[in-house]
Records
---
Amino acid sequence: MAAGSFLMHAKPGRFSSTMLSWILFATGIGLYFYTAQARHHENPDDRVTPTLAQMVKGITEAAVKPAEDDEPLADNAPLTQRLLASMLWKDTKATARRFVYSLALLVPAVLLGLHMGLFPYAGAFFLRFVLFFDKIVALSLLPILFIAFGIDELSKIMLIVIGVAPTIILDTFNLSRGVPGEQLVKAFTLGARDFDVAYRVVMKQILPRVLNSLRLNLKAVMLFLFAGEMIASTEGLAYRISLLRRHMAMDVIIPYVLWVALLLFVVDLSMRLLNRKLHPWFHEA
Amino acid sequence: MALIQVQSVSVAYGSPAKPVLNNIGLDIEAGEFICLLGRTGCGKSTLLRLILGSETPASGVVTVKGSPRQRPDPVCGYVPQKYSLFPDRTVLDNITFGPEVSEFNLLTRWSPRFYSRRREFRKEALQLMQRLGLRESDAGKYPDQLSGGMQQRVAIAQAFINKPRILLMDEAFSALDPGTRQGMQRLMKQLWRDTGITVVFVTHNTKEALALATRVVVLAKPAPDQGAGILMQFPVAQPCAEAEIGELTTRLESVFGGSEDLEDSLVPTA
Amino acid sequence: MRIPPHDPQVRMRNNESQSAALPLTSTTWTTMLRTTLIAFLLASAAYAETPSFTVGWSIYAGWTPYHYLMKSGILRKWADKYQVAIKVKRFDYAPSLDAFVAKNIDACTMTNMEALDMPAASGVPTTAIIIGDYSNGNDALLVRNGVQFKDLAGKKVLLVQKTVSEYLFDRAMTINGLRDQIKRVRLINTSDADIASAYISDTSVTGTVTWKPMVSQIGKQKGVVNLFNSSQIPGEILDLTVVRTDVLARPEGQRFAKALTGAWYEMMAQMSGPNADKVLTAIAEGSSDTLASYKEQLSTTKMFYTAQSAAQFGASPELQQKMALVRQFCYEHGLLGANTKSVDDVAIQYPDGKVQGKPDKVRLRFTVEYMQAAAQGKL
C-alpha cells in the first residue's frame, strides 16, 4: 500500500473499511483471551480473567437461575418461567424501571428550558440558579438526598435527575434561544399566541435536537444510576456488579457489563430511529 | 387618518446609545406600496420592525389604524429575507399554519373539528399555491427542499392566507438571483393590485424600488454617528413610463452614485 | 468488608523510587536503546541485591499502626537486618484486596473472612503470618425504636452485603434462635461511605450493621440501641497480615516475613509500653484521627500486644472452631466462587497440621512460626 493511501484523500474500499474497523475489537478480544489463558495456566482457580466457557456458564446461570436470596425454582420449570424469574431479568427490570422514570422526569426539565428560553421572566428567575446547580457535583449531595427522599427508589432517581437535568435544561434553553427571531415574529403575525409559539413552533423545531441531547446524556444518566445502585439498593445491574465484585466473580461481571453496553446501544439506536421517523425534515449538521 | 402613522420616532441601540433613527415622521395610506430604500445599516429594517411591533421606539409613537403598536399581531403580515418558513412543516402545513393557530389553541387543536377545518384550510392553501405559481406536487415538500424563490412564494402565501391589511416585507427578494427576483416582483405587484393590500417593502435596490413602489422613501444617515432620517420621498406612478423611471433613476444616482444596488455604490451616504 | 472512610490526606508515597530516570534528550535510537538497557540492567542488578517487598494496608484501628511502623523507622531497621527492602502502601480496603489477588503486592492486611473468600478462593494460596487483633465490639448491629430481634422480619437493615457485616448479622440471628427468619429481613446493600448518613436520615430504616467509626457516629443518635456486637462472638472477626504462600517459599520471602513480624512486635511493645500515648498519637495521625477517638476504637479491639498471646490464639483449637463457622458462611453465600461445589474445595491448614477441607486444596494457611520466633526472641 502506498503511503499516500493513508492521507486525507484516501478512499478505503468497503472491504478494507470493514476490516479496519474490526481490528481493535479482534486485538482486544485476542489479548484478553491470551491473558486469561496464561493466568489460568499458572492458577487454574483464577477469577480475575475468566475464560469464555466460564463467562458463558456464568451468564447462562444468571439468565436462568434466580438470585441466591430469592426462592429457588422447581427443577421442571419451563424456560420462560426460568428466564422471567432469573437474576439477570430481575436486575435488568429494576435498572430499566429507574432508567425510564428518570427519563420521564427529564421531560419537565425540557419544558423548563423551553420556557426559560422564551419567556424572559422565567429566564431571569431560573437561569442563574440552574447555571449554579449545573456545576454542583450531584454525588456529593447524597446525604441531603437521603434526608429529603429516603434511601429507596426516589433518592436514586432524584440523583439522576439532579445530575442530568441542569444540562438538559441549559441545552434546551440554548436551543430555544437559537431559533431565529423571524420565526417567532412570523408566527405572531399569523395569529399565534405565546403558548402556540412555544409549543407549536419552537418546541416542535428543537425537539429533534433535544432528543439528540438526551441521547448524548444517556451515559451520564447511566453513570448516576449506577452510582445510586452501588450506594444503596437490593436489586439492579449495578447492585449485582458491586456485589459480585466482593468475591471477584468476573465470569458474571464481564457479561453483565457487556449486557449493559448492549442495552445502552439499543436504547440509543431506537432513539435515533425514532428521531428520524418523527422528524423526516431534520438533517443533522 | 392614515393607516400607518410614524410620528417623530427616534431609536437608539446599545450603551452608550448609538442613534439609529432620528425623528422620523411618515404617514402611509391604505393601498399604498411603499418602498423603504437605503443602504444597509441605515435603519430601514428598524423602521419596519417598529411598524411590525417587534420593537418599540425610544421616543415618538407608531400607530396602525390609530392604535400604537405593542407586539407583532395579525394586522400586519410579514415576509423576512430568510427563516420565514417553519422547517418542521411541509409547504402545505406552512401555509395553513395561520388559520390553524388563529382558530384553534393548544387544546382545541385536538378536537375532531380541527381536522375537518384543516381540510378546508388545505383546499384554500392549494388554490393560493396555484395563484402564486407553486406546483401541487410541492405541497408535501419541506422548505429546505425548495429553491430560494419557491420558499419566498410559500412565505408570501403563508402571509396572504390570513388576509392581513398590511404586508411588511424585509429584503424579501434580496437573496434571489436576478431572473427569479424579477419574476417575484411581477408576482408581488399583481397580488398588490388584485387585493388592494398595503405593502411596506424594504430594499436596497433602486431598480426594485422603482419597479414596485407607489412611493419611494429614502432613508439615510446625515453622518456616520447620527441617526437616519428621511432623505427624500417621491411618488412613482404605477405602471410607470420609461421616461419617468429614467428620470427618477438619475435622481437617485445623483445621491447614491451609479449603481442600482446601493450596497455596490461607491459614493458614501449623502 | 472493612472499607475505611476515605481520607485523601493520608496518602503515602513509596519509600523508594524503583524506576531509574531515563534521559529523554538522546536523539538517536541507538543511544536511547543503550541507555534504556543500561538502566534496566542496573535496576535489575539492584533488585537482585536487596529483594524488595510491598505491604498493603488500609485504615482500621488494628492496621493503622503500619503507618507508624514505616514513619518511625522501625520497619527500616528490621528490613536492613534481614537484607530486604520493604515498602508500605496505603490502599482503600477493597483495592488492597484486588492488588493482593492480582499479585501486585506481597503482603496485605485483611480479615480472616476476606483472606478466605478473596485470595484463597481465587486460587492465590495465602498464609496468615500475624494475627493482629480481633473485633471485640467494633462491628455492631444497631436498631432504633426499641426493636427486638424477633421484630426484625420484614424490616429494612442497611449493611455492606457479603462482608463481615452480613456475617455478624447472620451470627446474631443464629445465636438468638432466629436463623429461619434471616431471609425475611430486607437487607439493603449500602456503601460504607454513605451508610451513616443514610441510616441517620432515613427513619424508615430499622437497623444497620456496620463498624467503627460509623458505629460510634450512629450510636450517638437518640433512640438507637446497640443490639448485638462482635464482642458477643469474640475471635470470629480476625484482623490479619497475610503473605502469599509462594513468597514464603523463597528464602528471601522468609526473611521478609521475619523482618515484618519482628518490626510489628517491637511496635506492639511500644504501643502498650510506658510511652504508649505518644505512640498512639502518632498512629492516630496516620488516619487523621485524634488520640481520644483512636483509644475509643482500641477499647473495642482486642489487640494481641504480645507475640506470645497471638501465637497462643493461633495455635488454639478455638481458631479452628471459629474458622469453621466463617467458611460455612462463605460457602453458603457463594463467596467461595460459583464453581465451588463443596465447602471443602477451599481448604484451611492450621499450625498443628490439621486441615479443614480437602488436603490437596489447601489455599489458606495459618502459621505461628514467625510469631513464636518473635515471642522467643529469636528474630
---
Amino acid sequence: MTLEKSPILMRDALCNTLIEAAERDERIIALDADLVGSSGLKPFFKRFPERAVNCGIAEANMIGVACGLSLTGKIPFAHSFGPFASRRVCDQIFISAAYAKLNIRVIGSDPGVTAAYNGGTHMPFEDMGVLRSIPGITLMEPADPTALAAITKQLAGDEHYGVYYLRMSRKDAIAVYGEGERFEIGKAKILRAGGDVAVFASGIMVAEALRAADELAARGIQATVVDMFTWKPVDTELICRLAAKVKLFITAENHNIYGGLGNAIAEVTAANCPIPIKFVGVKDRFGQVGKQNELQAEYGLTADEIVKAAMR
Amino acid sequence: MNLKEFAKEIRVTTLKQLAVPGFGHVGGAMSIVETLAVLFGETMRIDPSNPQWSERDKLILSKGHAGPALYSTLALKGYFPMEMLTELNKFGGRLPSHVDRSKTPGVDMTAGSLGQGLSVACGVALGDRMSGRACHTYCIVGDGELDEGQNWEAMMFAAHYKLSNLTLLVDNNKVQLDGYTDDVMKLGDLAAKLTAFGWKTLTADGHDVDAIRAALAERSAECPSAIILDTIKGKGANFAEAAVPNNHHMTFTAEQIEAAIQEVA
C-alpha cells in the first residue's frame, strides 16, 4: 500500500471546517491562548473577529470562559498545545466543564513526538491519560485531515453535547482516507483485514501500522489494522469481535503506554475477551527535542517496532 | 421589597436549613446574605418560574460552599418549594454542600473548586454580549478564594474585553479556612489591585443593603466593576461570629441555631 502525504495540513483542515461551520451557525466560537499563529486559526480570527477570543497565555481562564460561553448556548472550540490543553487545565475541564455538564470542545495540538523541536516541555505523552479518568469525556485523535474535518464538523453540531478533547498534529499527515469517508465517534475504522494479528493505532501511528502490515504480509503474517480514533468511549464491540478472530493484539500509540490507548483496549479484553497484547508506545519517559523521525525511532514509535512486536 | 427584611428571612432560613444536618459552611454563607438579598430582591432581572430564561441576569457563586445561603434565597423567591431545603447535604438530594447547576433550579453554575467562577462569569458575560442580550452577570468570590491565580487571569480578561456587563462581588470577610487571610496569605490592597487590573472598584459595607445598592448604582458602563464588600464571617449567627476565625465549617446544636434565630429575629 503506497502512503502519501495529504495535500492539506491538519491545521488548515481544522480552520476551514470551523469557518464553514461558523458561516452556518453563529454559536461557533474559537478560543486560543496566544497560539493563533500556531494553531492555524488565523483565518477564522480574521473572518469572525467577533466570535474569536484570544485569551492570552492563560489556559485555565480560557477553559472557564469556554464553559461560560457554553452556558449561554455557544459551541466553543478552545485550542492550545496538548500539554497546556490537558494537564495544565485538568481541574478546569473536570469541574467547570465535565462535572458542571457543559458543552465544550478542547483541541490539544502537537501530540507526542509531533512537538519535535519544542521538546519535552511541549511534548504530551500524557494528555489522553490525564483526561481519561474524567467521567463522560470523549477523547479522540484523528489520523488525517479528512478524519479531522469530518469529526470537527460533527462536533460543531447539536448531535454531540459534552466535553470533547481532540488531539491533533498541526502539520503534515499521511492521507489515510479518501474524500467523503464517514466517521462515527466511538466507532473504530478497520483499514485492512488480516487473520493473524490486529494492530490498533491512532494519529501518526496509523500510517506506521499500515506500513507494518505490508511488511508483515511479506513475512506471511496477515494483520488487521484499526484506526482507533476514539480512545474514549473505546469501541468495545469491535475489540471483542477482533479478539475472537486473531491470535495477538498490538496497540500503537504516540503516548505513554501507562494511561494510554493500549490500557484502554486491555481493560476491555481482560474483562471480556482475554487475548495477548503487545504495547508499542512510549515506555514511561519524558519527551525531548529532535526531528519527528528521530524521536519516533528513539521512543519506538515506528512500523519496525510494530513488526517486531508481531514477530516476537 | 424590604431588603432588610428579606435579608433577615434569608439568614433565618439558612440557619434552619443548616440545623437539619447539624453541620456546614455557616461562616461563608452568613457573610453573603445581604448581597444575595439585594441581588435577588431588587437588582437582578430574573423569573423564578423560568430559571433557564436566556434573557435573565446570571449569578455565578464561585465560593460554592456558600450554597445554603443561595438555596434559602432561591426557595424564598419561589424557584422551588421551601420543603426542599431539608435536602441539604442529603444523599441523592438536590442541595449539595457546594452549588451544582444540574441539581438545583436557579443555580446558574456549578462551583466548589475555588478560583474558577470568575472565568466562567467572563464567558457568560461575553456570550450574552455576542448574542446581543442586554443581561448582566454577577460573580461572588470570597477574599480567601482570591489566592487562586486563575482569578487574576480572569480579571485581566474581563478588563481587556471591556465586560461592562460583569460585576464582581468580593465577600471580604477577611478569614479563610486556616485563619485570617492576613496570616494565611495577605491580599494586600485589593481595591488598588483591581483598579490596576482595569476594573472600576467600589467598596461597601456588605451587611448594609442600602450601601450595597448604592455601590451597585455607581458601576461603570465602560468596564467591569467590582464591589469589595466589607463583611463578617458568620454574620448574624452569634455562635459562628464568636468562633471567628475558626468558623469556616462548623458543627452546631439545635439549641445554638435556635438561639441565633431568636437574636436575628
---
Amino acid sequence: MNNFFNKIVELFSTPEYIDSLLHGFLLTMQIAYFALLIGIFLGTIIALVDVAKPSKWLAIPKFICRIYTTVIRGTPMALQLFIMFFVIFAIKGFPSIITAIIAFGLNSAAYTAEVIRGGILSVDPGQTEAGLALGLSRLTIFFKIVAPQAIKNIIPALGNEIITVIKETAIVSMVGMYDLNMAAKDIGSGQNMASYIVPMFTAALFYLATIYLITFIVKKIEKSLRKSDLRAENK
Amino acid sequence: MHKVKRTLYLVLFLLVTAGMGMSVWWSINGEKGADYIVETNVPFAPFEFYENREIVGVDVDIVSRVAEKMNKTIQVKNVEFDVIIDNVEAGRIADAGAAGLTITPARSERVNFTIPYYNSVQYVIYNQEIPPSLRDDHVVWEALAGSKLGSQIGSTGYLFIEDEIENGVLAGTGTVLKGIDSHQLAADAILAHIIDYAVADELAAKFIIDKNPGLEALPLYYSGATREEDYPVEESYAIAVNRDRTELLEAFNEVLSEMLTENEEGVTEIDRLVLKYMGLSDE
C-alpha cells in the first residue's frame, strides 16, 4: 500500500507524465466532441426519416435507416473501429484522428437516432391531431408543438450518450492512437513507472472529472427546460 | 433577454467547435505525407517506446538510417502487435514492420524478413514469494507445468508457450495460457494473482523487474539430458518487409549490415544503441 502512494506521488511530481496525460486527454476530447456533433446531426436526420409519415418516396430511405441502426447497434464498437481502420480507411497517410472521428460519429448516430425517435414518439399523437384539426400545417405542428416537448424527453438520454461516447473512445488505443488510455499505458510501461495500476487510476480520475462536469451541465439544461412543469423538485 | 442568451450560447458553441477543429487540423498536419510507413508496437523498450509522445528506440533509429540512405521519408506508426504482420503482408497501409519481430516459419511465409539484427532469449517473470522450481540460474519448461501462464498476445513468448502446450513438454499437464495486452500488463497480472508466471523477451523482462521489487526474472531453458546441457529459448529479431517492396528490403539489409559491423572495440552500432536506450551508457 505504501508503494501505491509512493507511485501516486511519483506520477504527480513528474511534469512529463502530467503532460502526457493532458495530451492524451485532448485527443480523447477531440474525438468525442466531433463524433458527437456528427452523431447528433446524422442521428436527427435518421430519426426524422424514421418517424415521418410513410409515403412511397420515403420507403427506401426508411428501409436504409432501419438497416443502419440495426447493424451499427448490433455489432461491437471495437470491431467497427477495426473495420474502419483496416478495411474502409486503409489508405496510406490518411489521418487516423479523422478515421476515429468518423467511426465514433457513425456509431453514435445510430444510438442518438433511437434516442430522438423515442423522444418524438413520446409526445401524445392527440396533440398532432388537435393541431391538424386547428388547420396548422404539419411543419408548424412539428416545430411549435411536438419538437419543444420532445426535446425535454431527449436531453437526459442524450446526456447518457455523450458520457458513453467519451468513455468509449478509450478503445482507440487499440489502433495505436495516443489518447488518455494510451497515455496511462505509456506511463505504466517498462521504461517509465513499470506498473499500470497507478496511471490507470489517474486516467480514471480524468474521465470521472470530465463526466461529472458534463452531467452537471446536462442537469442544468434539463432543469431549465422543466421549469414550467409541476414537479416537487422544482418547488 | 432570451434572445441574447441564445446568441451567447451559439457563439460559445461556435468558438468551442472552431478551437477543437483547429487543434485537430494541427495534429493532422503533423502526420501526413510519408513515402513509406513502418508499423511498430509501443511499448517495447529499448526497441520502441514513447518519449514525450514521440516514438523512439533502436528500431526507430534503424528506420531513420534507411530513410536517410534512400532519401525518402518514412513514418513510424504504433498499432496492435498482432496486426503488424497482416498489415505488412497486405501492404495497403504499411510497407514494413519493425517491432522486435522474431523470424518464425509461419511469418516468413507471408512477409520478407531482413537479416536478423538482435538475438534475444525468453525470460520467465515470477513473484519473488512464489518462485517456480529453479535450476540454479534458469528455469526449464517442465517447471511451468500445471501453472497459469501469461504473455503478450501474438508475441514469440506466447507462440512458444502455445507450441509447448499443444505438442511439447507442457502437453496434457493442465497448463493454461492467457494472452495479455502487453508484457507490462502480464507483469501486473502476476502481482494481482491472475497468472502465476509471465514469459517475455529478455530486455522487456529486465526493464520490468528493475522497477518492480516484488518480481524476479530468469531465462527460460529447454531441458537437456543433464543440467549442463540445458539450452536457452532463443530467437532472432528482424524487420518484416512487404513482398513487393524489394528496394526497401535491400536498403534495410544494407543499413543493418553496416550497423552490425564491429568497431575496433568489438562493439556494434546496434549494441551501442541498445545500451543507450536502456539508459546504461553515458549518451
